[in-house]
Amino acid sequence: MSAPGSPMSKKNSTPTPRLRLAAPRGGHLLPGGGPAAKGTLHLIPVGLGDAPVDSWLPADARALAARLDTYIAENAKTARAFLKQVGAVRPIQEITIHTLEARTDASQLREWIKPLKAGAEIGLVSEAGCPAVADPGARVVDLAHAGGHTVKPWVGPSSILLGLMASGLDGQRFAFHGYAPVNPEERARQLKTWEQQSARANQTQMLIETPYRNGAMFGTLLASLRGDTRLCIARSLTTPTEWIRTQTIAQWKQGPAPDLDKQATLFLFLAA
Amino acid sequence: MSAPGSPMSKKNSTPTPRLRLAAPRGGHLLPGGGPAAKGTLHLIPVGLGDAPVDSWLPADARALAARLDTYIAENAKTARAFLKQVGAVRPIQEITIHTLEARTDASQLREWIKPLKAGAEIGLVSEAGCPAVADPGARVVDLAHAGGHTVKPWVGPSSILLGLMASGLDGQRFAFHGYAPVNPEERARQLKTWEQQSARANQTQMLIETPYRNGAMFGTLLASLRGDTRLCIARSLTTPTEWIRTQTIAQWKQGPAPDLDKQATLFLFLAA
Questions:
Q1: Does the beta-carbon distance from B168 to A257 stay under 8 Å?
Q2: Fold observed for domain A36-153
Q3: Whole-number mean pLDDT of chain A?
Q4: Which member of B11, B144, B246 has the closest CB to residue A262?
Q5: What whole-number distance in Å separates Cα of residue A45 and Cα of residue B6?
Q6: Does the distance separating the beta carbons of B155 and A21 come in below 8 Å?
Q7: Closest residue in A to B177 (Cα–Cα)
Q8: What is the pTM of this model?
Q9: ipTM for the whole complex
Q10: Which of A83, A114, A156, A257 could serve as A88's disulfide partner, Cβ 3.0–4.6 Å?
Q11: Where is this region: Disordered (chains A, B) (predicted)?
């Protein structure tokens, strides 16, 4: 039996030999033998646009974000706006914000997360949405795992997940591809390849585009995909201009084009 | 210019001909011409396990869920437990809960969502996590789109998204496959195919398993994948027994197996 109060005690109905038991959260066994300090890298989602924080962040995540004094952020300016939104408990200029760029080297990242060894808590935030999904934050998470530290993901907004839920397309199997190729011929060819993959594996396909090119992407999707393929447009999720619609390519061709200009949009499709 | 107070007015800096302007949320134009009533299908995530609601649901989603009087649910019992958690404003026995099964036919679903035409609000909830992702709820969403109704996704917990964030694997490109084949040979072959796809497209692969078979799946992953492929185990997310770790297959082989028995687990891997 596990010791009373152990996080494992509820779920283990049969005794497990001590040696085979994975350490609970915060007490990883390092390859060297001794337990690591209880440092935690908190992965904290930020908003997707103009919307009140209580509509997209759980109260506990908000309270945690408000009390941390060290952040690694994709963009220091948006990180400070986020700290204002959550009501940071100390003056924002006293909060350490390290700016993470694609070119930031690993030795610098290791330096930033060093305080985890002494039990510190550090927040990781993206420019919008969930950190380490479609942004460079995954490198920081990877180093935290390598050091045996606890990585704690918090619930928050992701346009990919919200779009998938709201599309009505099959959520049992899906793939997110990021950006399609820019060259028009390669782009059309790639969309057709993804459509074949969708038909073969019954897999919903998801992609994004640079906001000013959204209208062009919509046109290419209509020109490249089959008439019976269902396309979902999920625009400006969580904000006042949120707009989500799913129809077949043939139906989209009959109606007016949606206004997607400069608005973050997720494109999803599923072949018939 | 858009009318003052229009949700479009902030983002559109240049005037757009009225005909080309997509209708804002709640005012879709139906193929027939007239605007639909402002019925809304709310997609509301529920918890993944034993955890306080304020740690995984934004306050606004909680307040909305507490006031709705009609739900479509994958499981009526867990839906009632959720309504208790969020503090439903009326007695739970007075709240209508339709139970959605894989075999529920489309005419029944259409009957359930009929009140949307008169402007009603209906909640859609899964047994755990986000509705319409890896559950039968997508059919209801699809019918709501077909009727021109507003579909509103709310932020909440998804083991797929939380696991992806916390894995440290590449979040730029990823695929979720649901369950692997049960037959041992097919399973090993499928895992290898996904590993090749991961190497080719630099795409993180995600799968789940029936909880009592998690230990066996862990063993098959170790036996099937290459030594330098990174594997993340994300167990019991958001609950007190949450445990997340990423290592190479070679490293996993050296240490003790994690205890995954009867605990919801997401498996993620990325080929080197």
A1: no
A2: Cobalt-precorrin-4 Transmethylase; domain 1 (3.40.1010)
A3: 88
A4: B11
A5: 28
A6: no
A7: A173
A8: 0.87
A9: 0.86
A10: A83
A11: 1-34
